Amino acid sequence: MNISTNAYEFYTIEPVQVSWDQFTDEGIEKFVVSWWDLHPRSSVLAGQERKTFVAEFSTLEEALANYPQSDVCNQEVPVSNTVGHLPDEEMSAYEEEHYFLTTPIIIIRE
What we know:
Blueprint: E1 10-21, E2 26-38, E3 49-57, H1 60-66, E4 71-72, H2 93-102
Parallel strand pairs: 1-4
Antiparallel strand pairs: 1-2, 2-3
């Protein structure tokens, strides 16, 4: 079990339809475990949500047995990152370093 010291680090289990059976007209569903945290300061998405694939299971019960601390979701949860804080023009390496080291990190939560 991963015990986090950051309040924004957690697991989710989400249903994902991976294919469609043309003969039965039913979807084949899997359950994906994802790890959520924030992008590090070194990233252009610093302070924004990061969703990392961890594992896939055939049933919700299997996923919960392996990741009991997870939040169970009833649909796939998208990541809501923005890039509006990035400059509109290309910069040299020196300009980038100065820009990103002096620009405050803004955490956006909806």
